[in-house]
Amino acid sequence: MTKPGDKTQFIDNTVRRKWDKEEYEKRAKERIAREEAGIESDDENNEAYENALVERVPLQARDYELQLESRVGKTNVITSATPAGEQGGYYCEVCNCALKDSASYLDHINGKKHNKALGFM
């Protein structure tokens, strides 16, 4: 503890952010002046912002049947030499991945990775 009259330096080690009030007051005045002058904000004129929006065609229904019931009750012998498309379960040609059951296959075709590979995300 420090004693009254002790001339040791105080180190500010608080984690709380210290705001530069003059800087933010200056920014606020500039923003208000731009709004009054009718100038749009810098973010809307940014080229990256303009290119971020991409026009995509709406999603369409599948034109083929998934045939999830075609493998019910069948067995396959799988070795390490078996190609990924012929291994047990279901295979996604778009993502080049094998899935073990119909539930994981449905989750995959409706999921983020598959839709990103199709260009929807």
What order do the helices and strands come in, and which of them pair?
Blueprint: H1 21-37, H2 42-45, H3 47-52, E1 90-92, E2 97-99, H4 102-109, H5 112-118
Antiparallel strand pairs: 1-2
Overview of this structure, please?
The protein is mainly alpha-helical and 121 residues long. Helix content is 35%, strand content 5%. The protein contains five helices and two strands. A two-stranded antiparallel ribbon has the order 1-2. Strand 1 (90-92) and strand 2 (97-99) form a beta hairpin. It starts with 20 loop residues before the first helix and ends with a helix.
Looking at the structure, what is the overall shape?
A: elongated
Strand order of the largest sheet: 1-2
- pLDDT < 50 stretches: none
Residues in helices, as a percent range: 25-40%
Number of helices: 5
**Average pLDDT figure:** 77
Which terms would index this structure?
mainly alpha; elongated; 121 residues
In short:
The protein has 121 residues and is mainly alpha-helical.
